[in-house]
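Q: Can someone sanity-check these two? First one:
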Amino acid sequence: MSAPLVILGTGLAGWTVAREFRKLDPQTPIVLVSRDEGAFYSKPMLSNALASGKTAESLVNQTPQAAAAAVSATLLPHREALALDTTAKRLTLDDREIPYGQLVLAQGAEPIRLALQGDGAPAVVSVNDLTDYARFRAALPPGGRVTVLGAGLIGCEFANDLVLGGYSVDVVDLAALPLSQLVPEAAGRAMLHALQGIGVRFHLGASARAVHRRDGQLAVELVPASAGAPGIGATLLTTDLVLSAVGLRPRTALARAAGLSIGRGILVDHWLRTSHRDVYALGDCAEMNGQVLPYVLPIMTGARALAKSLAGAPTEVVYPVMPVAVKPPALPLSIVPPAPGMAGQWHFMPAPSDAAHFSASLVGHFVGQDGVLLGFVLAGTATAQRSALARAIGQPV
C-alpha cells in the first residue's frame, strides 16, 4: 500500500482538500489529524450565530465520523503534532508517528493574545473554533455587558450579533475607525455610524492595558493610544465579559522547527508547495506573495488546485477576483482591497460626509493612475453590485 496523504488540520482547508483529492484518487489512503474532534462546520458562522440561538452542536454540518467516511479517510482526533521530519517523511504526534507520501499543513491560525495585566486577564475569551464558541456562550450572562477588544472584521460582526442577542456592547480599538486595516476611511465611518445606530459604544484610539476583577464583574483598564507615563489618562470600563478579537496569527511553529521557510505564514509558491519536497500548506497558515488569505473563497480555490497537484497533475493556483464579505446586519460590506503598493485614489458615492446615507448604500472605487479599476468597497444595498464590479476589475472606469 502506498504511503498516505496526511492532512494536518480539519478546518475548511483540510476537509476540502480531502474531498477534492478523493474525487481524483480513490485508492491512496488519507489520514486527517485534528487538534479537536474534527467536525465539519462553517467557521465564519461563529461571529453571527449567537442572536439566532445557534449552539456549537447546531453549527456542525457533518459529524467527524460522517466526514471521514465520505472520503474513506482515517481521522485522528484530539491529537497534537509535535515534530515533522521532512527527510524521513514522518509526522510525530503525541501518541504515535505516522509516515506520509505527501503532507498538507492546514493548521489554520491562533488568536493573538494581548499582554494584559490584572487578576481578570485570564478571564478574557477568544472565539476561534467550536469549543471556544461553546465556552463563550456558556460564559455570557443573560442581557449582560460585553466588551469586545478589536474593531476589525470579527470584532464588528460579534458586536452586531451581541446587540441583536440582547447584550450591551462596548468595542475598544487603537485605531480611529473600525475596520482600519481592511477598508478605506469612508467605509470605516459608515460602519461606525451603523453600529452606533444600534447601540454599540466605541472607545477608539484606546487600548486595554489590564483587566481587574471587581465585585463579581470585570473592569477593563483603558489607556489612550498616545498615553505617556503609566496611569496617565487611564479609565475603567465595567463589564461582565471580555471578548478579544484583535486578530489571528498563522500557526507556524511546527513548520519552523522542521526547517521550512517562514514569513508571516508558511511560505508557499503558486502550487502551494513549501520549501520542502512533498510538503504543502493551505489556508490561514500559508503565505503566498507576501499575503495570508484567511477567507473562504481563496481557501476553496486553493484546495481544488492542490488536490489536482497531489493527484499527480501539478496545477498552479490562479485566484479570481474575490470580494471579502463583512457581515454585520447593520451594514454588510463587500470589498476588494487594492493590492499593496498600488497607486491610485478612492472615489465615493454618495460623498463620504453624507452620513445619513451610509446605512443605505455606499460605493467606493479605487482607480489607478491610468484610470483602471483596481479595487472597490460596497456597503448596504450596494453590495448587490459586487459580482458586476468584480468582473470590472482591471478595466477602465
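And here is the second, same format, sequence then C-alpha cells:
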Amino acid sequence: MLAISPSPKQTSPSSPSYDEQWIGAFFDVDNTIVPGLSIEVLFVRRLWTQGLIGFREFQKSLGYLLRHIPPFSLSPLRTHKLYLVGLLPQTIEPLAEEFISSIICPKISSRAKLVISRHQRAGHHIALISGSPEFLVKPVASCLNVSIVRAARMESTKEGYTGRVFAPLPYGLGKRRWVQQLATKYRLDLNRSYAYGDSPGDLQTLQIVGNPFVVNPIRGMTRIARQYGWPTAQWV
C-alpha cells in the first residue's frame, strides 16, 4: 500500500500500478518531509552565526510585522523576507546549498523517503511545494530526486535581494493555485492525486485532492483531520 494507514472514516487507497502519469503527489516540506522547525528558520540561524545578519534585520522584520496588525499574524513575513534585504544571491545560494546538503538532508524523514520512492516507482508526478525560499527547497528536492519545485521566489536587483516574494506564495490559497496549475500542465487527475501537509497552510490543497494525508499535525490539524475523516501520521 502506498500511503499511511487511514483513519476508520476513510477507505485505504488501492496499491498503485506503474506509469500512472495522470496522478500527482504534492508534498509540503517544513515539518512534513523535514520534521521540526522550518528549514528557513534553521537557515536564518546559520546566517546569524556567520554574521551575515544581526539585530538590525530582526528589528526590520519586527517593525514590519507590527505595522501590519491587527490581527496578529506571521503572514506578512511570509511575503516579505526582510532578513535577506541587501544580501547577494551569489553569496546566499552557495551557502544554502551547503547548508541543505550537510544539515537538512540528513534530517529528512525516513518515512517521507519511503513514500516518495513509492510514488516515483508508480510513475506519479511528484512536487515539493513550500513557502520557504526556492534556494532552500530546490536542494531538498535534489536530495530526493524530485524535479518539480514550487517555492517562494525572491525578487533581487543588482544591489541584492529586496525581500519581496513574487506572487503567488505557495502557502494557503497560493499553494492550492500552484497545485491546480501543475494539474493543468501535466494533465493530472486531482481526484486520484495525493497531498501531504502538516498545518492550516496546507488545508486548501488537501481539500482538492482525492487522497489527502496530514503528517506531523500542528496548529489544530489533528482536529481538522478528524472532522474531514483524513488519515494522520507521525513521520520521523
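A (reply): Looked at the second one. Residues 100 and 118 are 23 Å apart (CA to CA). The chain has one domain: 24-233.
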